[in-house]
Amino acid sequence: MKDIEDLIQKAVELQSNGLITAQIADELNISRETVVWLLTRSKKEETTPAPKDISVNWSSIGKSAKRLHNVSLALCDMVLETMEKINAEVDVVVGIAANGIPLASMMAYELDADLAIYHRKGQESVKTGHRGIISRNFGSVAGKNCIIVDDVITTGSTSTEVIEQLKEMDAKPRVVVVLVDKKGVDTMHNVPIQSLVRIARLD
Ligand SMILES: O=P(O)(O)OC[C@H]1O[C@H](OP(=O)(O)OP(=O)(O)O)[C@H](O)[C@@H]1O
Hints:
Belongs to the purine/pyrimidine phosphoribosyltransferase family. GfcR subfamily. This is Transcriptional regulator GfcR. Pfam families: Pribosyltran (PF00156). It comes from Methanosarcina horonobensis HB-1 = JCM 15518. This protein is of the alpha/beta class. It has 2 domains: 4-42; 59-198, Rossmann fold (3-Layer(aba) Sandwich). The chain has 8 helices and 7 strands; from the N terminus they run αααααβαβαββαβββ. The protein has helices spanning 2-16, 21-28, 32-42, 59-62, 65-85, 101-111, 123-127, 157-168, and strands spanning 92-96, 114-119, 133-134, 145-153, 172-181, 187-188, 191-198. It has a 7-stranded mixed beta sheet, sandwiched between helices. β4, α8 (157-168) and β5 (172-181) form a beta-alpha-beta unit. 1-O-pyrophosphono-5-O-phosphono-alpha-D-ribofuranose is lined by residues 26-27, 96-99, 120, 150-158.
């Protein structure tokens, strides 16, 4: 119960800082439906039963470079296992901004690969068909074996977008690797999904 009260407080705080529902959902790693539920509940209004969702807080890893490094080693190990199966080398590690960047940087160093950063566009831009970009300040992806790194998969829309975008750029997305996979699928667009923790609902 305390966790729910904490989440309500955090959601209200983020809303009062000007964040919209989608941004609050991303920040708290929960669905938009859950954000609406939390905000409704904060007003003590009648609410429907809570949506089936799981809140992920990985700040105990994120606050420590040493822990991030250790976790990135585990993610590299999983990636290499997958890459061995398809007999391919990692050319580029693509970190999804913002949360995928620290892990992707450390993984690129460990794998002796280039680092690329993918910036998503806002939700409105996505609706109108504009997608994100690979930052010019980092590596390029065309023609290269890429692994995609992020913190959490919730709906999978971010990973799907990046896979599609990389394919359009003639890159070869080989694996998506995350800390926590809340969606629990094996592949997206035929690209394998690897996670340290995979959540599976039993109901
Ligand atoms: O599977 P999905 O439903 O697409 O959600 C997962 C994405 O949401 C969060 O990113 P966000 O868009 O908040 O960007 P941020 O890393 O800048 O917070 C998270 O870091 C993932 O990238």
